[in-house]
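Example 5.3 — Putative alpha-L-fucosidase
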Amino acid sequence: MRSSFLILSIINLLTIVHCVNYEPNWKSLDARPLPEWYDRAKIGIFLHFGLFSEPSYVSEWFWDFWRDSSTPYVWQHTQLLRYMRDNFKPNFTYAEFGSNFRTEFFNATQWAEIIKKSGARYTVLTTKHHEGFTLWPSSYSFQWNSMALGPKRDIVGEFSAAIRKIGNIHLGLYYSLFEWFHPLYLKDMEHNYTTHEYVRLKARPELEELINTYRPELLWSDGDAVYNDTYWNSTDILAWLYNDSPVKDVIVTNDRWGTNCHNKHGGFFDGPDRNNPDSLPKHKWESAISIDQVAWGYRREASLDQLLTINELIHQLLKTISFGGNFLVNVGPNKDGRIMPIFEERLSQLGEWLEINGEAIYESQIYEKCQMSKNNQTFYTKKNDGIYGITLDWPNEGIMEFECIDYDDVNQVTMLGSDESIKFGPGSNGTLVKFPKWIPNTFKYAYTFKFHV
Ligand SMILES: *[C@@H]1O[C@H](CO)[C@@H](O)[C@H](O)[C@H]1NC(C)=O
Ligand SMILES: *[C@@H]1O[C@H](CO)[C@@H](O)[C@H](O)[C@H]1NC(C)=O
Ligand SMILES: *[C@@H]1O[C@H](CO)[C@@H](O)[C@H](O)[C@H]1NC(C)=O
Ligand SMILES: *[C@@H]1O[C@H](CO)[C@@H](O)[C@H](O)[C@H]1NC(C)=O
Ligand SMILES: *[C@@H]1O[C@H](CO)[C@@H](O)[C@H](O)[C@H]1NC(C)=O
Ligand SMILES: *[C@@H]1O[C@H](CO)[C@@H](O)[C@H](O)[C@H]1NC(C)=O
Ligand SMILES: *[C@@H]1O[C@H](CO)[C@@H](O)[C@H](O)[C@H]1NC(C)=O
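Solution (predicted structure tokens):
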């Protein structure tokens, strides 16, 4: 009796395990539940680092803008032609930046410490951008990687180890599918993407090497938008990732798997850069934004007014989280391998705010009734028996109405960072709250009330 029960249980268990076998089609792949850690983490730090960090001028698209006059980026193209003419010897090639790219101050522990201090729960590093230069000794990127050229270091390896060591931050790796000037890619392009040599011999095996070696929990795919998923063999890659890869149970990915996939297929939806939907999305999404509003990689010429202030950053964070998104904040380390103090400061300000207000952010859920006030100054999230109203205003009169909170539902109001008991009462169509005494160094940027319901 007992042993047959045991055998049945084992058979059940095997069935459950066996059942989770994804087929290389979107119907099957899209049915995979997103691993839970991702929605709970909410805040991530994106790092754009690569050979483009060496010239660190105009954009991480430097090489393409400089070489390709057919892009719509005429201003960038003209600017870079002039810059190269005035500052480099004739016939200087992009590859020659490689020997100057020494990253002599790169210290992965320091990056991990800055990320930790920001309050982020995940991070994403560009391991290969569209230039094709890999930040690890890729077996598929001969002489075009950070071990053979430039730093002579495994940047991805050092970064992954430092992130794991510091703890409580999920490791994400960005990988660009396409490469502007890869000969095999150019050939496939000439054949109108009816051949797949680049995918078969470069992108696919290289991506597998990256995943097998560093075992990230997030794969941030990009550079897909030149053709549809048929060319990239995306469903086959994802079936491998979800069924057979060493990270099959934890890996989270995005929707950049071909022109027909954005906001439709994959894991969470990134949509366009600086995603900012105006109505509540039905699917888990992410807003990737850069503190430098002009570019993702470091730009030496960036001016202060081009960088998001901490208030702007918090405002965008609130709009994103209240609408159910994750917030991925980008900084570009410089050519020396340093996250410059202005970016470090911005990230640490974010961390200070999350230290007090994180309860309303991490692991929070969408408050279905209402996500933001009519004047866009107050945002709402919920968790267990609390609804959080987070406002950018500190009213002069010290009284504000939270229009989305029904007074009859409220048992008690508290404020994050304050011990004072908060007075509240019925408003014209919501709940009135009396702000407590101002506490310097605690109240910053946006203020969170918890409505216990
Ligand atoms: C640059 O390259 C062109 C074409 O290969 C060559 O004719 C020219 O002499 C080169 N210029 C210099 C300064 O090396
Ligand atoms: C890297 O930074 C950490 C933390 O600041 C420091 O303890 C360590 O000595 C640095 N390593 C090197 C090689 O400079
Ligand atoms: C690719 O498409 C273009 C435009 O439709 C066509 O002119 C060309 O012949 C095609 N090339 C190949 C190799 O099929
Ligand atoms: C992708 O492109 C191929 C080749 O042009 C075409 O046969 C296929 O229908 C396209 N797939 C989608 C989903 O549009
Ligand atoms: C997609 O990948 C699978 C498995 O590696 C392979 O058998 C198939 O030929 C690939 N398809 C294309 C179009 O490259
Ligand atoms: C609030 O945000 C919405 C959507 O982003 C926008 O359409 C509207 O103009 C904003 N209202 C105010 C008062 O800023
Ligand atoms: C009252 O608030 C709700 C949202 O909580 C809103 O839908 C409704 O339009 C508001 N009514 C008035 C009169 O402002």
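Remark. The domain at 23-360 is CATH 3.20.20.80 (TIM Barrel).
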